[in-house]
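Hi R.,

Here's the chain you asked about this morning:
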Amino acid sequence: MKSRKFESKLFTDPYIESLTLEEKFVYIYYLFNSRVNWLGCYEISDRQVIFEVGNDLTTSSLQKIKNKFTVNGKISFYKHYVILKNSEHYDNHMGNIQLMRSALKQFLDLEEDVQKAMIQFKPRHVIKEYQDMFSKLGCSLLVIYGVDEIQIQIQIQGHIEGESITEEELNKISKEIN
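And the predicted structure, written out as tokens:
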């Protein structure tokens, strides 16, 4: 079972205060459910959300809530993925090399179009922090922001682009830099 630090200041955030009770519950669910990872980008179906949230949440009400979160720029929904705008505010992993190793593995496991959707939605300063930390792990993440499209290039020390990196290899890389 995962545990996460829950900041009570969340309830004094003006955005949270503006939500209905049902919207608050769904928002908190998206921030803190068991699938949330270090990237704040995870896969989950609407069916699973409705099942886990319960409380008579319907498909139509979930769609309205998701649309609100999207329009307000808080959460992006791409395919069956949830991308949290500022998940880094709720976890203290950005400076922790061991946790960033997990984030790198999670990022590399995403399909390229999901990686691009995540990079496009997250604030640029957050992407820069990920680039800096990934670099320390031997992974160069080049992001080119175009007018209509984002291009990414990933190069892992000693690996061919697109080749999967194992947990053992990530462990070896992180031990070398510590």
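The beta strands are 41-43, 75-78, 81-84, 139-145, 150-156.

Let me know if you need anything else.
M.
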